[in-house]
Amino acid sequence: MSKKSSTIHIEQCFWDLIEDYQNANGMDSRNLAIECLLSEFKALKSLTQISFNINQSNLIDKHTTKTSAPQQEDLLKKKLLQMEDDMPD
Questions:
Q1: Where is pLDDT greater, at 68 or 21?
Q2: Separation between Cα atoms, residue 4 and residue 35, nearest integer Å
Q3: What are 23-78's pLDDT values in tens digits?
Q4: Inter-residue contact 52 to 60 (CB < 8 Å)
Q5: What φ, ψ does residue 55 adopt, rounded to 5°?
Q6: What is the 3-state secondary structure (H, E, C) of the chain?
Q7: How far is CA 38 from CA 19, 21, 55, 67, 70, in A?
Q8: Count of CB atoms within 10 A of residue 22's CB?
Q9: What is the C-alpha to C-alpha distance for residues 39 and 45, in angstroms, rounded to an integer?
Q10: Does the reported pTM lie above 0.85?
């Protein structure tokens, strides 16, 4: 998979979130922190039904559990392993 260079403009609160994640996980690269955050989001999204609606610049999430607790635990383990495989080296 090739990487693509891009400039993004996001609010300071998101830069703070990225920096906090980066520091909490001992990461030197902001790009790696963003990739890991998005990988985690992807895994969590696949575990639940999440829809995001933009309403006057606010994100509203609605979620419901798809599976029972034991099934969800097995699915979580599988998704975490898959997420680890998807992370860049």
A1: 21
A2: 12
A3: 999 999 999 999 999 998 888 877 765 555 544 444 444 444 454 566 767 777 77
A4: yes
A5: -135, 105
A6: CCCCCCCCCCCHHHHHHHHHHHHHCCCCCHHHHHHHHHHHHHHHHHHEEEEEEEECCEEEEEEEECCCHHHHHHHHHHHHHHHHHHCCC
A7: 14, 12, 22, 23, 25
A8: 19
A9: 10
A10: no
Residue pointed to by tokens 């955050």: 37
Q: Which amino acid is at 68?
A: S
* Residue 16 vs residues 21, 23, 41, 86: alpha-carbon distances, Å: 9, 10, 17, 24
* Selection from 43, 44, 42, 49 nearest residue 66 by Cα: 49
